[in-house]
Structure formats: C-alpha cells, structure tokens
Amino acid sequence: MNLYNNIFPSTEEFLLKASEIIKNGGLVAFPTETVYGLGANGFNPIAVAKIFSVKNRPSFNPLILHIDSVSSLELLTTIHSEKVLKLVDKFWPGPITLVLPKTVLVPEIVTAGNSTVAIRIPNNEIATKLIKLSGVPIAAPSANSFGMLSPTTAVHVANQLQNKIDFILDGGKCSVGLESTIVEFTNDNFFLLRDGGISSEEIEEFLCEKLKRKVLENNPNSPGQLKSHYAPIKAIFFIDEVDISNFNKEKTAIICFSDDKKYSEFTFRKILSTKADFTEAAANLFFFLHELESENVDFILAEKIPEIGLGKAIMDRLTKAVNHYR
Ligand code: TXA
Ligand code: MG
C-alpha cells in the first residue's frame, strides 16, 4: 500500500478515470519518459489556467502540448514542412519538442500569447494512452513547483504538489530523467532552445545541418533558458569552484560523474554512472538530487561533466542549479 492517497497505478481502470478528469477540466499528473507532467485539456483555457496556479508558474511561461499521433499536428500548427515531418518521423515518440506556428485552435494561455506552440509525442505508453483516451492534446509542464527540481517519480510529484493535486498516475522512474530537447522551426531553420533528452549532435547528424542557437538570455518566451531555473533546496556548488576542505565531510554530499573512488572521505556520495555512460547519468541526476533533498546534508558539491552528447543537458541543469547559489 502506498502512503499517498493521490497516487494511482496506471491500470486501464485508473487510466480511464484519469482521462475523465482531463475531459472534465481537471488536472492529472502522469509519467513521460523525460519527467512527470502536470496535464490538462490543452483546448480548455480554464483547465490550463489551473496548471499555472498549482505550480505557481508565471503566466508568461508557455506550455508543451502532448499528442499521441503525428496526424494531430495539422490541428495545432499551420506549417506544412517536409523537413519537420522527417525530423518528427525520426525522433517521435521521444524527448524532442518542436516549436511551430500555432493554429487558432490553440488557446493563448497555452502559448502565453506567443504565435508559436510547443508540441511533442512522449515515448511512454501510459502518457500516450492517457492522451488517446482523453481525445485532446494534453498541455503539461513538468509536475514540479516553479523553480524546483523536476520530478522523475510519482512520489516526487506527491511530495512537491501535495494536496494541490488529486490524481497522479504512477509509471515508476522516468527512463530518460531529463526534460525534452526543444527545437524551434522558423524561416526554414532549426533553432535549439533547450538541451535535453536527445543530444544536439544526434539531431544535427540526422538533419545534416547545424542547429542555430538563439541567444535569448532572460527571454520570457523560453524560461527554460533562464540562467537560474532548476534548483534543489540544498545549496549546490561545483567542486572545482570551492575549497572542499571548508566542507564538513559528514554533512556535505558529493555528486561524481563516474569515479567511485574519489572523495571517499565524504559520507554521502552519488555516482551518476560508474560506466561513465551519459544516458545512465542523465536518468540519475534529478533522482539523486531529490534523494539528497531529504538526506541530512547541508551542501551538495557536484563534479563538472564533459559537455558532449547528453553531457550538455546534464551540465545545463547543474549549472542552472549552481547559479541559484552563486
Ligand atoms: O520533457 C519535457 O519537455 C517535459 C515533459 C512533461 O514533456 N515538459 C517540460 O515542460 O519540461 P516545462 O513547461 O517544464 O518546460 C517547457 C519549456 C519552457 O521552458 C517553455 O518556456 C518552453 O518549453 N516553451 C513552450 N512553448 C514555447 C514556445 N511557444 N516558444 C518557446 N519556448 C516554449
Ligand atoms: Mg519545468
């Protein structure tokens, strides 16, 4: 038995119940392969407004619409581009979100007034079943309070949002563990807005072109790009930017990339991947940070990670957390 009365197993019965809640304008937290989402009917502005209120999310921060089939694209975007179709054909379902010009069907509150809308098909059967049963695109940000760590288990959602949400579908630990990569398509060009679960190298290799970067620091259109955004409750620093002799070995946690022999004098040590595997490291990052939030530690020291492949997204999240305390 679980201790939470708002977490339900993802059986057919509870999936059906969850879809009824979505259809009736309520909120459901659900698993995706990246992180848990806090979902509402993406065509219902009042339901979507509840997401902003539960998360304390600023209204200028647009949401991603989750769909279960490429055929839904024509309802949501005015663009018909072979290049976009080829890209989504390759990477959907999966951790890549496309930002495209929106149709009039997409409510302004979803896009925070932008003329573009963010869309993805998640690679998680519970998520796609829920979308299918609901019969609408599901608008969902990560199911955390604004500025806090993204949840990668149902219990993380329950602990953060507590009684503000009635229904959480349990899908175990998220396999990717980091949010999706966000790519905008404008004027026939692809722009990278956020590093995430699919590395930019993999996308560039497939497209045979470089992704352009938008330098939009502190641009409210994409708060995922803010310098400080993801922050654990405990103060976190990069190991090479502090004098570690100043830290109490019993009450400071270390997050290492791969070497499990280093820093053995510290009581709390988390190794992201003993095999130095970026995919495994990505899946563990938020999970470990959540664990450390409830351990008896005052500080977290993190090792820097090589910025190749998924290492870029991991360093992006770590840097944003560290910036919070810089
Ligand atoms: O993996 C994910 O992307 C997860 C799961 C639940 O799908 N969702 C997620 O949502 O991370 P959220 O709201 O935490 O982050 C979405 C990011 C935000 O930084 C938002 O600003 C950006 O997407 N975004 C959404 N619509 C946009 C738009 N029209 N133009 C630019 N950025 C947009
Ligand atoms: Mg988020």
Short synopsis of the structure:
With 326 residues, this protein is of the alpha/beta class. Helices cover 30% and strands 19% of the residues. The protein has helices spanning 12-23, 45-55, 73-76, 82-91, 108-111, 125-134, 154-161, 200-207, 278-294, 311-323; strands at 7-9, 28-30, 37-41, 64-66, 96-101, 116-120, 138-140, 168-170, 181-186, 189-194, 212-213, 235-238, 252-256, 268-271, 299-302.
Q: Keywords, please?
A:
326 residues; alpha/beta; DHBP synthase; Rossmann fold; 4-stranded parallel sheet; 10 helices; 15 strands; 30% helix; binds threonylcarbamoyladenylate; binds magnesium ion
Named CATH architecture of the largest domain: Alpha-Beta Complex
Helix content: 25-40%
* Mean of pLDDT: 93
What is the level 1 CATH name of the largest domain? Alpha Beta
CATH superfamily of the largest domain: DHBP synthase
Give your account of this protein's structure.
- With 326 residues, the chain is α/β, with parallel strands linked by helices.
- It has two domains: 7-213, DHBP synthase, CATH 3.90.870; 235-323, Rossmann fold, CATH 3.40.50.
- The chain has helices at 12-23, 45-55, 73-76, 82-91, 108-111, 125-134, 154-161, 200-207, 278-294, 311-323, and strands at residues 7-9, 28-30, 37-41, 64-66, 96-101, 116-120, 138-140, 168-170, 181-186, 189-194, 212-213, 235-238, 252-256, 268-271, 299-302.
- The strands form three sheets. A nine-stranded mixed beta sheet has the order 2-3-7-4-6-5-9-10-11, with helices on both faces. A four-stranded parallel beta sheet has the order 12-15-13-14. It has a two-stranded parallel sheet with strand order 1-8.
- A hairpin with a 2-residue loop joins strand 9 and strand 10.
- Helix 1 crosses helix 6 (125-134).
- The longest helix is centred in the last third of the chain and has 17 residues, at 278-294.
- It starts with 6 loop residues before the first strand and ends with a helix.
- Bound molecules: threonylcarbamoyladenylate and magnesium ion.
- Threonylcarbamoyladenylate binds next to strand 5 and strand 6.
